[in-house]
Amino acid sequence: MSAEQPRPLFGGALSAVIPHSATDVSDLREIPDNQEVFAHAHTDQSLIVELVEFQAQVSDQDSALYHFEDIADSNKALEPGTFAVSNVVALPPTEISLSECSSAWMLSGTQCVSKFNEQARNTVTIHLGLFRLPQFTTEILVTFNDPQIISPDSSSAASVVTHGVPWTVQDFKLLLKTLTLHNPELFG
């Protein structure tokens, strides 16, 4: 499959250009029905496309931060100094394919997280894309986990790049730009 070819997601209800060297994690282990998860074949990078409940109580401009903090909570990275947001921007409708969303956002930040409840913590840059679809009471959350500092005591230490080309923010932005809805029945 060409690197620029959109890949079907959720049984073809959505599609997007997924970066090179992506392994569909559902081929390796069970993934929740509301997620599509991809891992880089040669690094510890991962991408998650997730359907989540629309958070009506959260304003559009705070929505990406809300989900970033929710991920930090899941990662047990809410203590002071374990997470930081560096950038939040609105994605202009002219720069995305998902015309059904009421607003779209991209956030970049870092979290100090442990993998598999290990003691060792890795510093991970998290790029988050959020598409709000209130008419479907759904939000599409796209997360790009890009480890920056891997603890030598982490199980991820063996995944440090020795070969292969890692994914870039441009790869992630292409995924966000090309995310397209084909079947609204996906949302129930």
Give a written overview of the molecule.
This protein has 188 residues and is mainly beta. The protein has one domain (31-187): Mog1/PsbP, alpha/beta/alpha sandwich (Protein Transport Mog1p, Chain A), CATH 3.40.1000. 13% of the residues lie in helices and 36% in strands. The protein has 2 helices and 10 strands; from the N terminus they run βββββαββββαβ. The strands form 2 sheets. It has a 7-stranded antiparallel β-sheet with strand order 3-4-5-9-8-7-6, sandwiched between helices. Strands 1-2-10 form a 3-stranded antiparallel β-sheet. It is globular. 34% of the residues are buried.
What can be said about this structure in brief?
The chain is mainly beta and 188 residues long. It has helices at 60-74, 169-178; strands at residues 7-9, 14-16, 22-24, 35-40, 46-53, 83-90, 103-113, 122-133, 138-149, 180-181.
The CATH class is identified as Alpha Beta
- Radius of gyration from the CA trace? 16 Å
What's the CATH architecture name?
3-Layer(aba) Sandwich
**What is the element string, with H for helices and E for strands?**
EEEEEHEEEEHE
Shape: globular
| Strand fraction | 35-45%
Overall strand count: 10
CATH structural fold name: Protein Transport Mog1p, Chain A
Query: Strand pairing plus helix content: what structural class?
Result: mainly beta
How is the main sheet built?
Answer: 7 strands, antiparallel
Poorly predicted sequence stretches spanning 5 or more consecutive residues: none
Percent range of helical residues: 10-25%
Q: Please list the strands of the largest sheet in the order they lie side by side.
A: 3-4-5-9-8-7-6
Mean pLDDT: 89
Keywords: Protein transport, Transport
GO molecular function: guanyl-nucleotide exchange factor activity; small GTPase binding; sodium channel regulator activity; transmembrane transporter binding
InterPro entries: Mog1 (IPR007681), Mog1/PsbP_a/b/a-sand (IPR016123)
Protein name: RAN guanine nucleotide release factor
